[in-house]
Amino acid sequence: MSEGPPVDPRCGAVQAQLRAGAALDPDAAAHLADCADCARVELDLALAVDECVDEAAVLDGLHARMAAERGPLGWWRSQPTGRRRALGLTVVLGSALAFGLLRPRPDLAVFPMPRMLALVGIYAVVGALASLGALGSRRAPVVRPRLAWAALAVALVVSVGLAALPPAHSAHPASLGGTGAALVPRALACLGVGAGVARPGLLVLGLGARATGHSLRAPWVLGAAAGALAGQLALQLHCPVVASGHRLLGHALLVVILGLATLLLAGRR
Length: 269
Prior knowledge:
By secondary structure, this protein is mostly helical. The protein contains eleven helices and no strands. Helix 7 (113-134) packs antiparallel against helix 8 (145-163), helix 7 packs antiparallel against helix 10 (218-238) and helix 10 packs antiparallel against helix 11.
């Protein structure tokens, strides 16, 4: 796409930083938020990685959304990408860790600690990657749908795989429940807890990304993946039930529920 010379003398320096993939300083980031020419260059760089995107439609929708943003939401979306990523990650993982530490599982003293650390680490790392992807990057501010679907699939595989592991122990009475007649009630209770923990991160990530057209659902789907993993991280620290059936229905199923919910609701925004 051909472009005329930048009107604002600051545009040249900002656009050079964008093309070089360099981190924008605060002044450049503030200029980018207000300059349509630089926003077009940033979008051109993002669209170069996905030729299936309708550039004109995405650009028009992005400019319309930027012009309409006001209040706390406008402030949040105007923050530099690095700051939004850091705050989003803090909310996603902080919600899970805070809940788990404030309401720890009663069998923690007998649960094998290496396995506990491994499970917590996997949930945290995969959830963090989904969280970072939901807010895009300076070079690719529009989240690609393929990335969102891939992240949701990975979250589901990780969740099912960890939930299907053999029970960690049988040394605490609280860990032996959640089966038989108690399977569904206990699973529903855990799903409610997990969804509650996932909600703050899902909203922060979904509302913090600019998207339009066919990309509108992508940041919400990534937010659902991150939120579901955060919810399972909290449940890993809170729920003492070790039966695989309970963990599949009450923990791993959270990925499917949040993924479907965001697919349906985000499309109406």
